[in-house]
Design brief:
The complex is a heterodimer of chains A (345) and B (204).
Chain A (H helix, E strand, L loop, with lengths): L1 H21 L4 H8 L4 H7 L18 H22 L4 H25 L4 H7 L18 H8 L6 H4 L11 H26 L1 H25 L7 H7 L11 H5 L4 H9 L15 H15 L8 H25 L15
Chain B lengths: L1 H21 L8 H7 L2 H37 L3 H4 L1 H24 L5 H6 L1 H45 L3 H27 L9
Helix pairs in contact in B: 3-5, 3-7, 5-7, 5-8, 7-8
Classes of the chains: A mainly alpha (345), B mainly alpha (204).
């Protein structure tokens, strides 16, 4: 029943998003791109794709920075077009996508100012999907209570900050990482619960995608926190409690001492069985690859909101890939191109 | 919400019935009396209204489901817009089935003398039967067309998106759509045959 009325509000957008999906770069485009000798070749190869209007010939000197800027602007334009046409509950879902980037931006700004870089330069580097007003003022925060009261209270991130222990302690690198983890944990849990509330196919599709995201965070956090001296209880409280690893494997994950133990735990889950089998790529790439496949699969269902999440994941991955290719070309290490691109069907 | 409304109505009816029964006015709770006093014209009118009304709802569901997807998918692949108009036509046909049934019923609608009907039981029975047949025919056509439009819409929406992704799929999905569209025809056929039994007026 609910499926039928989906099209009243979201049918048009679903059509657009599926259009974007069928214009994603395919295997043949990637084959062409990996043959490019210079960035100018890369630009010409992209002329036959959706990126033609953003990479016009009037760019004087194309470098990786400029390319990244333009690709990201293109992505944000597409996102905003969808968001402007959206209505509830899709708007909230799109907001959630932005909140993830906002958290990354806040943490990047904090880490940047800590190491004394100028704020203007940092703001320019932020992911445009996660921009919010007054981003520049974040540099004034020296401890987490100032950070909350001066900056974050006016942003959509304020509710996620509730679980953060607001202390007068000076912000250092470890503190900032902990803040990132807590914010992200409460963000992704709230996102997951919201999607479950939508019910039907949306809940089913988004559950799988967000569980993977949770597990990826949990694995990354437990790996990165090795040797930081954080106690096991704190570590466990940082791991997002919605994934496949929840609830039985998270305490074990907080206890690990090296990568091998992580592998043993993760391999025990049916969802991740065999993920380390060939042992060539690193964990992050494997999980990204899995996520890309799941995003593509989510397009097999119609009348649900999961594709809006999936398309922007795929688009971002594509931008990341293009930038990686451009980097490889400028650094004359083209042999690396093939190794790092998740495969699109 | 629907269940609550229906439950409420049934509850009110039972309360009135119980209070009548316990208050010694038992015979007024009489379904046969109720049915006998509903005029055959009311049944005709209800039949016509249901057939055209539900069919149009079905057609509009079909058109918006398909139309929204055609518009969206047509942004990136403008070539789909002409071919996929056929899905809109299928949905529209559902509304036309409703009109056909309504028109047939309206041509069968005749005046009859109520006084004469009270004298002549066969004539009364004939006219009452016609009334119920029209209600039944209207419901048959209406509900069949409602779900038919729904099915055509859902398939049409998928067809538009599939066509945008891969042009080969269009013809195959069209077959599915034709079968969905046939559901409404079943309703139409049954309604037309039912209508052939209708005989109203001062005849025996």
């Amino acid at each position: 029943m609910g499926d039928t009325f989906f099209n009243i509000q979201h049918g048009y957008l679903e059509g657009i998003v599926r259009g974007i999906k069928s214009h994603l770069l395919g295997a043949s485009e990637y084959a062409n791109l990996s043959q490019c000798e210079t960035l100018e070749d890369l630009r010409l190869s992209l002329q036959a794709t959706d990126y033609a209007p953003v990479l016009t010939a009037d760019i004087g000197n194309l470098d990786v920075r400029e390319l990244e800027d333009r690709l990201r602007t293109h992505l944000v334009d597409e996102f905003n077009e969808v968001k402007r046409n959206s209505s509830e509950p899709l708007t909230t879902l799109l907001n959630y996508i932005q909140h993830g980037h906002m958290i990354d931006n806040v943490v990047m700004l904090l880490l940047g100012t800590l190491s004394g870089k100028p704020v203007a330069e940092l703001v320019a580097k932020c992911h445009p999907l996660g921009r919010f007003p007054n981003m520049g003022t974040i540099g004034i925060a020296t401890n987490s209570s100032e950070l909350y009261e001066a900056v974050l209270i006016d942003t959509p991130l304020a509710p996620y900050f509730k679980e953060c222990s607001i202390t007068e302690e000076k912000l250092d690198e470890l503190n900032i990482e902990v803040i990132r983890c807590v914010l992200y944990k409460s963000y992704i849990e709230s996102f997951y619960d919201y999607c479950q509330g939508l019910g039907d196919t949306t809940a089913e599709i988004m559950a799988e995608l967000l569980k993977l995201e949770c597990d990826r965070r949990a694995m990354t956090i437990s790996l990165n926190s090795l040797g930081t001296g954080l106690s096991k209880d704190i570590k466990e409280s940082l791991l997002p409690a919605r994934g496949h690893l929840h609830p039985y494997y998270l305490p074990e994950l907080a206890k690990i001492d090296d990568v091998e133990q992580l592998k043993t735990i993760v391999e025990g889950l049916p969802e991740y069985k065999g993920i380390f089998d060939d042992g060539e790529e690193n964990l992050e790439d494997k999980l990204i690859q899995k996520e890309v496949h799941m995003c593509i699969d989510s397009f097999l269902h119609q009348f649900h909101y999961g594709i809006f999440y999936a398309i922007f994941k795929l688009k971002q991955q594509e931008v990341t890939n293009l930038i990686w290719i451009a980097e490889c070309i400028t650094q004359k290490s083209r042999h690396k191109i093939e190794t790092c691109i998740p495969h699109y069907p | 919400m629907w269940m609550k409304t229906i439950g409420g109505l049934v509850g009110v009816y039972l309360l009135i019935g119980l209070s009548d029964m316990l208050g010694g006015r038992g015979p007024t709770v009489d379904i046969v009396w109720l049915l006998e006093n509903i005029s055959p014209y009311a049944m005709c009118g209800l039949g016509v209204a249901l057939s055209i009304g539900l069919s149009v709802v079905g057609a509009s569901i079909g058109i918006y489901l398909t139309g929204a997807s055609i518009m969206g998918a047509g942004v990136k692949e403008p070539r789909i817009r002409n071919k996929n108009l056929i899905s809109i036509i299928f949905s529209e046909a559902v509304g036309i089935y409703g009109i056909i049934v309504s028109l047939i019923m309206l041509t069968n609608l005749e005046m009859f003398g109520l006084e004469a009907a009270e004298q002549n039981f066969a004539m009364k029975a004939q006219n009452y039967m016609s009334g119920y047949i029209m209600l039944g025919a209207g419901l048959t056509a209406g509900i069949a067309n409602l779900v038919c439009g729904w099915a055509v819409g859902a398939v049409g929406s998928g067809a538009a998106i599939a066509d945008a992704a891969n042009p080969v799929l269009f013809v195959r999905l069209l077959v599915v759509e034709i079968f969905a569209s046939a559901i409404g025809l079943f309703g139409l056929i049954v309604a037309v045959i039912l209508n052939s039994k209708v005989k109203m007026g001062n005849i025996v």
